């Protein structure tokens, strides 16, 4: 591709530099466009807009490729751990053993939350959605750690990053315990990051809790699959909030709010609810017809993606993990058969083929989470737990980016032009 892009506008010709990354699409650098042409570009949903430069995650939507710092998601899911992927995203390289041990030790010793934070839960109804609680409680963290909110101090940024990664499992587990009326469980530092989360969620003070290694491995892999995903809506929300210099805990709370939407992280809960509503394979054609009907707002939840126009590589790993968990727990769920059949029928239907709609990360995740014992209302909270690693890594990258400025898009104004006020008696 040439190294400049030419634009003719208003009878004048303009040229803009074309920048190339290490892999993937080039970008046209239009930072001077408005100053030179007095016109904005128009891109609702940012379908053709690169908001930043990043070294964290690369996605090739046509090839179904997902790399974290260059490592394919399939290899990381197979051979790595969530703590190791967290270190990789934050620091850029896979850790040596002593580096990983030190990082894990640090995270482990930040897992407790301030004792007063428990009071925030008691303000919620017991049937509050866990994501409503996560928004509120994670936002409240911004009131507790004044020693790690100077975002221009790299030491404080690291402390805030570690606190967020370490405390999300504790807060998510507390949200679950609150919803079922059980006492909160304190972290147990002798357990792995994921094992500790499982014990805080499903353990009770009345008896010891044995972490099932198969479930621990499956959950750790699910966390890896959800860790980061380029400039998705919630990550862009965290970057935009962070671009004003806002408190890091508040920025992550903003990301949680965005992730909650059913078009984004809320799709895992919506997908399982949809599969349960379908109930049996013979009802699948009815739902596929609804998904294709322009007059019906229904969409197949867990299908389609802004970037993947091929199979989401995370969905591949997720489907394989369903089988492993079912075999290990000696359980089955007819909803898995419905999911497999739905995928098969949708992927042979012209509508889904033409629109390149494939299962995404959210299509199978709920089947596993349900088998492990999580209520569907907790699914997006688990997504938020894992995605905190990506949000924190992207927030750090944004703050240290020399090109970074406060995010402030413009608009195409289509409202009334200037007019004079009319007193109420003359209207
Ligand atoms: C996540 O960005 C990320 O990376 C997100 C994520 C991450 O890790 O952060 O990967 C996590 O959010 C995964 C996506 C989870 N959401 C869902 O599963 C909800 C169902 N899917 C969609 O609503 C939709 O596919 C989106 C939101 C995911 C993507 O929407 P786009 O890119 O804006 O595409 P679109 O809505 O313009 O759809 C293109 C066409 C439309 O038809 P036409 O207007 O061209 O006729 O495809 C149709 C849509 O109607 N379509 C679907 C569909 N998804 C898109 N039709 C039926 N069922 C669907 N699921």
UniProtKB/TrEMBL annotation:
<keyword id="KW-0012">Acyltransferase</keyword>
<keyword id="KW-0816">Tricarboxylic acid cycle</keyword>
<keyword id="KW-0812">Transmembrane</keyword>
<dbReference type="InterPro" id="IPR010953">
    <property type="entry name" value="Citrate_synthase_typ-I"/>
</dbReference>
<comment type="pathway">
    <text>Carbohydrate metabolism; tricarboxylic acid cycle; isocitrate from oxaloacetate: step 1/2.</text>
</comment>
<dbReference type="InterPro" id="IPR016142">
    <property type="entry name" value="Citrate_synth-like_lrg_a-sub"/>
</dbReference>
<keyword id="KW-0808">Transferase</keyword>
<dbReference type="GO" id="GO:0036440">
    <property type="term" value="F:citrate synthase activity"/>
</dbReference>
<keyword id="KW-1133">Transmembrane helix</keyword>
<dbReference type="InterPro" id="IPR002020">
    <property type="entry name" value="Citrate_synthase"/>
</dbReference>
<dbReference type="InterPro" id="IPR024176">
    <property type="entry name" value="Citrate_synthase_bac-typ"/>
</dbReference>
<dbReference type="GO" id="GO:0005737">
    <property type="term" value="C:cytoplasm"/>
</dbReference>
<feature type="active site">
    <location>
        <position position="305"/>
    </location>
</feature>
<dbReference type="GO" id="GO:0006099">
    <property type="term" value="P:tricarboxylic acid cycle"/>
</dbReference>
<keyword id="KW-0472">Membrane</keyword>
<feature type="transmembrane region" description="Helical">
    <location>
        <begin position="363"/>
        <end position="386"/>
    </location>
</feature>
<comment type="similarity">
    <text>Belongs to the citrate synthase family.</text>
</comment>
<dbReference type="InterPro" id="IPR019810">
    <property type="entry name" value="Citrate_synthase_AS"/>
</dbReference>
<dbReference type="InterPro" id="IPR036969">
    <property type="entry name" value="Citrate_synthase_sf"/>
</dbReference>
<feature type="active site">
    <location>
        <position position="362"/>
    </location>
</feature>
<dbReference type="InterPro" id="IPR016143">
    <property type="entry name" value="Citrate_synth-like_sm_a-sub"/>
</dbReference>
<dbReference type="Pfam" id="PF00285">
    <property type="entry name" value="Citrate_synt"/>
</dbReference>
<protein>
    <recommendedName>
        <fullName>Citrate synthase</fullName>
    </recommendedName>
</protein>
